[in-house]
TrEMBL record:
Pfam family, one: DivIC
Regions that span the bilayer: 12-30
Protein name: Septum formation initiator family protein
InterPro entries from the UniProt entry: FtsL/DivIC (IPR007060)
Organism: Winogradskyella marincola
Coiled coil (UniProt feature): 38-72
Keywords of this entry: Coiled coil, Membrane, Transmembrane, Transmembrane helix
Domain of life: Bacteria
Length: 108
């Protein structure tokens, strides 16, 4: 009897309050369109939007590289810079700065 007279449980004697509380709990946790489900979907959408921007930037970079390689001079420049290719009458000198040389242990 004392439990029913508790001041904290008094609002729950009203049927409308009880139905509202049950409805809110149902919509937050159990429904297919629950708040948690929508929050999860919104997080996934944000991640996909970030990936979309990243891939757009990569496509733009690749299109620029394709455009550069579409000319004879661009192919020659890429071959010289990336693959150290040379013409028959040329010598290539690769200059490495002290900062770019990997440090080796003295024990080796």
């Amino acid at each position: 009897m004392k439990l029913l007279n508790n001041k904290y449980l008094k609002p729950f004697k009203n049927i409308y309050v009880l139905v509202l509380v049950v409805f809110i709990i149902w919509m937050l946790f159990f429904d297919a369109h629950s708040w948690f489900f929508h929050h999860e979907l919104n997080s996934e959408i944000e991640e996909l939007e970030y990936q979309k921007e990243h891939y757009k930037n990569e496509i733009a970079k690749d299109n620029k590289a394709i455009k550069e390689l579409s000319t004879e001079e661009g192919v020659e420049r890429a071959a010289r810079e990336n693959y150290y290719m040379k013409k028959d009458n040329e010598d290539i000198f690769i200059i490495e700065y002290q900062d770019s040389i990997a440090k080796k242990d003295n024990d080796e």
